[in-house]
Write a structure and sequence with these properties.
heterodimer, A: 369 residues, mainly alpha, Amino acid/polyamine transporter I, globular, B: 369 residues, alpha/beta, GMP Synthetase, Chain A, domain 3, 2 domains, four-stranded mixed sheet, 11 helices, 30% strand, membrane (chain B)
Amino acid sequence: MVRNKYFYYLFLLNATINLINYVPRILITDRFDGALMSIAVSIPIGTLLMFTFVKLIQKFPGQGLPEIFRSVMPKWISGVLLVLYGFAWYFSSVITLISFVDITSRYISPDVSPFIVLSGFLIVVALSARLDSESILYGLEMILYMTVPIIAYMCWRVFSSPYFSWDAVRQVITHAWNMPNYKSIAAATYVYTGYINMVVFNRIFHKFKFRHVWVIVVVSMLTLLISVFAPIGILGAAGAGAHVYPAFSAIDSLRIRYFIIERMIYIFYVVYMSLSLVNSIIHWHVGKELILGGFGFKSDQTESVDKKRKVEWWVLILFSLVVFVLSLFINQYILNDMAIVFLDIRFAGELLLIALLFFAVWKIRRKKA
Amino acid sequence: MKVLRQGLIYVMCCSLLFLPGCDFRDIDLRLFVLVIGVDKSENNPDMHRFSFKIAVPSGDPKSGEENSLLITQESASVAEAIREVKSKVDKELDFGHCKGIMYGEAFARDNISKIQDWTVRRRDMQLLMYPAVAVPTAEAVLKVQPSTERIAGNSIFLALSEDGTESPFIIRTYSFDLARRMTEVGEDPIMPVVEASAEQILTINKVALLDKKRVKVIMSPDETRLYNLLYSRNLSTNFGTKIDGQLYEVNTDRTRARYNIVTDKPGEEAINYKIRITATLEEKEDPRQLEPRDLDAIEAQLSKEIGQTVKKMLEKIQKTGLDPLGFGLRYGGTHWNNQTEMQDWQAIYARAKFNVSVKVKIKSTGFKR
């Protein structure tokens, strides 16, 4: 059983990972066409979604999504839904992993074959995703304690740099009154999506309570604003759109004097590699549990646990193979499009999930009555 | 757990196989390119003349035996030039420590955008390179070997960065800043000018103002210092004045320049500069002891003179139509009519008046009264 704070860690992980990955790129692409308004709109939407979800899942203490769906739906519908959700959640880690392999070969070691890098990542992720939920959360806690202070330091360095152009930021702010669009809202609400991991981790939460909503609002708002304005201030209002990884280019423009390494990017890379890996581990863990749940494996009876542990390998091998095959023929444009499609589908899927949970609550209430 | 442990041991053993990677070369098999120079070719208008200053790794920087090698190559593109240079050396060229790019004056007056794009695009080039205009040619500048140099080729970085000498005539800029200004609407690029003035001396005391891709104006050293007063904070420099034929020189401790753009009345737009300088008296001709009211007189005189020269410098920049201080971006960032603001600004900038108010405060007169 774990305490409430781990819920906030799950949120924080998803929020920090969004400082770099595809979300800033999508928002920066739309910086003159309603990105800021989309951010403004997505803050209430994201908070509301999270709040509703938490209220609903609290009605099912100690249960994961497989158990909930199974109790209120015919077997085959719940099976299909769970497998779909499992694969969707796994898909987000595919984008994270492939883009991180791309970043590695772009900024760190152009000479090393990307497949060796990817194999390394996959081994870590696949083996760790098999750990039990509690150990994963403890690992997450440790990684966050190590990385969040460094991220805060780097944000401070970006905004205090004498080359940071506040005029460029103001220029983008004057474009705030443009209409928001679905793509940017879907990207911006992704910051909140860490809560979805509760569909599996809810099993181990003890008397889960959701308090201090304002912390979530403040952190997510800061995350979104930093992710957009840090690259714009460093790379320029017009120039930020020209970079493939705006956050990495912005960090590459920082210099640390009087330190062993001169370029900030190496520290940044290590920080984000650990965050990306933990993020992928959690997504694989959740995806794996959902898919196994969809095929009817239960984790509470001893004889089926053994069988489940065996089938688990096959799921993880399938996951790894898919990543490998995808990385063979994906280039950066397909990757970006994939990220956009994923974010758009995910936003709709999140709304559907909440609707399904409403249905489940309603069904159970009717059963009782 | 046992499976996991076995798996991990297996992974660790396998990872040994990756260690002697065929693509990775050891440090003694690498040559570090430190500075790249680009000139126009004298014979062929389609070709450029590239110079590469290459450091030969040696053991001890304290011994002062630095070795560097200059290779020049005429080629149509920089990518081609590098491949051709690779066939002239015995070791792998490494650009990880390349920290300077010199554009020869003739080349910079033509169009730097092609090479500049390459420096940002190429993955192993830092965004923290120091770009500069080289006079008379980049090759001549790279040939200069100051005897104060301790590590091969680094004297030019020490001068262009803030690590080594701190001169008020040196404008500090990085390639990400150059890239930003080249695309930003309302802010034009600048670069320091490096001049090979004697066999062992590089003089860096001018700033070149560029339109979006070529050098338009090179300012005089005095104008460069005044530009630097507006461009950077806490510039340490000296200012001199004569009262009753007696010379007084002050040394600045803190400087700060701020401006706002006043557009209340159409046709009478103004850019108001406020400059605050705190200084100490460094040199005086008059042997008489100073009274407080003498100090007031010096302050008033200095304020008036600096104000006039800054205004003259700003008007000179205004006449060229360039905007190296980013007035246009500030105007865009404070006006919400995004469709028309830049056309408005073009008209306003041409007729705007400059009002410069300088306040010099002499805090001390040094050890003597």
